[in-house]
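Purpose: get a first structural picture of the assembly so the mutagenesis plan has something to point at.
Setup: two entries, given in the order below. No constraints added.
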Amino acid sequence: MSPILSVQDLQVTFDVRRPGSWPWTPPRKLHAVGSVSFDLAPGECLGVVGESGSGKSTLARAIVGTVPSSGGKILWEGQDLAAMDSTKRRTHRRDVQMIFQDPLAALNPRMPVGEIIAEPLITHEPNTPRAEVKKRVAALMERVGLLPNLINRYPHEFSGGQCQRIGIARALILKPKLVICDEPVSALDVSVQAQVVNLLMELQRDMGLSMIFIAHDLSVVKHISDKIVVMYLGRVMEQADARALTTVPEHPYTQALISSVPIPDPRREKARKRPVLEGELPSPLSPPSGCVFRTRCPKAQPSCAGDRPAMIDLGSGHRVACPYHEAQQVLAAAI
Amino acid sequence: MVYPDKAVMEGVAQATGMAEVKGRSLWSDAVTRYSRNRAAVIGLVVLIAIILFSLFGGFFAAWSNEEIDWGRMGNIAATGAPSFENGHYFGLDDLGRDMYARTVQGTRISILVGLVGSFVAVVVGTLYGAVSGYFGGRTDQIMMRTVDILMSIPFMFVLILLLVIFGRSIGMLFVGIGLISWLDMSRIVRGQTLTIKNKEFVEAAIATGVKPMRIVLRHIVPNLLGIVVVYATLLIPGLIITESFISFLGLGVQEPSTSLGALISKGASQMQYGVIWQLGFPLFFFLVTLFAFFFVGDGLRDALDPKDR
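Result (structure tokens, whole complex):
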């Protein structure tokens, strides 16, 4: 099956000016995303994990088109996003919708939820009769588990989980092909997280959506994704099938991430030896030379500071960016 | 468990038949909060009373604002004091005209100046600031530097020149005040827009493909209106003072029209002849109007921005 979305060697760079610098001094480059590649098949869910500041959200925004990419290609149904004219771009906007991290901040506080959910519909099909719009909004609200008679309420009258459902309804009203979820559950408490994740999975299955699911919690991502990309400081460390990545992680960073997930059994949790990552994420303005992870890597060698490690293909879609990779069996029950 | 489960879905199906719940917008919350603020409510009542007075006070006047009471004209200090018997409720002015009718007329002009000025500020300033802030970059630079330049021109000097060159008329005064009143507003609005445009709901709208101008009008401006309303209310008394000052200098409204500033100016110059009512009544309405506007503005600020209290 041909991929619906194909990201090839994507790079996103931001110009950073020091406050008070002269207009003619060249700005410093911040490489938020450096050479990310993946394919996404229709109906598939890709998980993206990494700690804060690893460029996950920037990647999402580059695919949606709110942040310009500075290198590489994003192919949407085989067409380069950067080369699209405005009409094609509009249909792309229609087919790719986004769900945001902070459920309340993503909703305009001055609009009733009915209008919020209807906005994409009104934007792309301005001639839809009002009764029809209302009917579709009500049906969708019901679908995501909201009472349709709350259509005139305002966002501040809802709880966080309900707000996220409103955000999901807004993303789905145009029946998009791809939904990008930017940490949709990080701001919710655990029981609500499960509800929202299950709702998303169910909707994905029923509507045949492709999905990119971004999170920093590997256990959530594993639950929902078919494939997982692990990012660190804007670079891909490892990508593989969800199962392979969580059972036999090759990259030291992935191993550290997995070991940081607690086991819900105190005895086994106590008996487990876990390598804890030390130090902080380096500044993306001056990333370490060579492998960006080497400053915190337990297996770092002197040669890691040299060239940027190439992606090594281990077969069946498992790729890892570490020459010293070594499969480490993790407890299957760990996550 | 797959959510929503069966029981929940049944509940949803049941509730589907229910009537729509009316939402409480942030505006209706603000109205509730405003009505709990006693000083602000009193301010609003006083303000409405003054506006009614300026609009309909003329119907209760025994004398029009142009008639001259020839019988009392020669001896105003002795016979022109406020009295209900001869129909001069607020006394007579130095030319024998009824002060009540004059005060009604002056209050009307002063409030009109304030309202027109702040209306221009709200419309022009909000759109200008929101567009400048939202589009950012070079557009923002050019638009804001233009405001800087306009602000650096000594306003009073230009206004006086305008009035001297084009003749002293109330229309010219409106133009002059309208020209400057939106500058501050546009800056405040731009600053607010910069914070609002980075909110996720604006990003959601961009990602959906909503057109930029529509984002400004539907997402940015409604979220700005709180601060705009507050600033506009607090701007009105400032404009009334400006107009009064210009009229006090003798450059504002011209006879036979008048404003509170012009009346106060006249009254102040006649004070020494024992006709204190000529100063007292216009001054009273001037102060009460300003106080009412300030109280209303403060009340609105508290009501619309409960976090900053």
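DSSP finds 13 helices and no strands in chain B.
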